[in-house]
Amino acid sequence: MVLLAEQTVKKITSNYEIIVVNDASADASLQVLQLLKKKLKKLRVLNHKKNKGYGGTLKSGFKTAKKEWLFYTDGDFQYDVQELLKLVKAVNKKTELIQAYKIKRQDPWYRILIGHLYNWFVKIIFSLPFKDIDCDFRLIKRKAIQKIKLDSDTGVICVEMMLKLKENKINYKEIPVCHYPRQYQASQFFNFKRILDTGLALIKLYWRFIKEKNG
């Protein structure tokens, strides 16, 4: 996926960097990345010795990034990084965010059901206008990210980010992208502790949102 990302971004610009965050992976991810780093001059590897969660991983990447535009996606290959070209084509002088949405989710039925319910729920309670809150295929201006403070360490960071970008009246476009079945290992989200952590984080985010809205 790293090699495909480099091939893709070279078609857009020569002024780029590729950042991969290894969130204390238990497999050989770090060793593979270190080998890749010797071949790819513009690859930067961030290694978390202790797991910081999905939110912590995104915050590390955002903090490290130096270019005008940030593109991020997951490393599990359920999105085709080559579709970044579609997002770039949608950029104009006013656009600050190009948000993708899945044409058809390619997951087991229960994940699709839970995903739809979760997306529907957070859109209602936070009044979010976006089609697909949890589509982690985003092209964002770095200035837009720098204007907001992200606190979440769980997957709730996606809701928090979209909520705060909306509150800042961000200019955005939405683009459909393909979603593919997971090829390697299984999702780490669907266990009791992570679901509980996500639920508690959503409650905290909701109360912070209500307090800020009411002054």
Number of helices: 8
Instruction: Kindly name the structural category.
Output: alpha/beta
Distance between the termini: 45 Å
* CATH fold naming: Spore Coat Polysaccharide Biosynthesis Protein SpsA, Chain A
Strand order of the largest sheet: 3-5-4-6
CATH architecture: Alpha-Beta Complex
Order of helices and strands: HEHEHEHEHEHHEH
Mean pLDDT: 90
Helix content: 40-55%
> Taking Cα atoms only, what radius of gyration do you get, to the nearest Å?
17 Å
In this structure, how is the largest beta sheet organized? 4 strands, mixed
Total count of strands: 6
User: For this structure, what is the CATH class?
Assistant: Alpha Beta
Tally the structural domains.
1
Runs in which pLDDT lies below 50 for 5 or more consecutive residues are none
Q: Which strand-content bin applies to the residues?
A: 15-25%
Fourth-tier CATH superfamily name: Spore Coat Polysaccharide Biosynthesis Protein SpsA, Chain A
Quick one: overall form? Answer: globular
Can you characterise this structure?
This protein is of the alpha/beta class. It has a single domain, classed as Spore Coat Polysaccharide Biosynthesis Protein SpsA, Chain A. It has helices at residues 2-10, 29-39, 53-64, 84-89, 109-125, 142-146, 157-167, 192-213; strands at residues 18-23, 43-48, 69-73, 97-102, 137-141, 172-177. The strands form two sheets. A four-stranded mixed β-sheet has the order 3-5-4-6. The mean pLDDT is 90.
Entry summary:
The chain has 215 residues and is of the alpha/beta class. Helices cover 43% and strands 16% of the residues. It has one domain: Spore Coat Polysaccharide Biosynthesis Protein SpsA, Chain A, CATH 3.90.550.10.
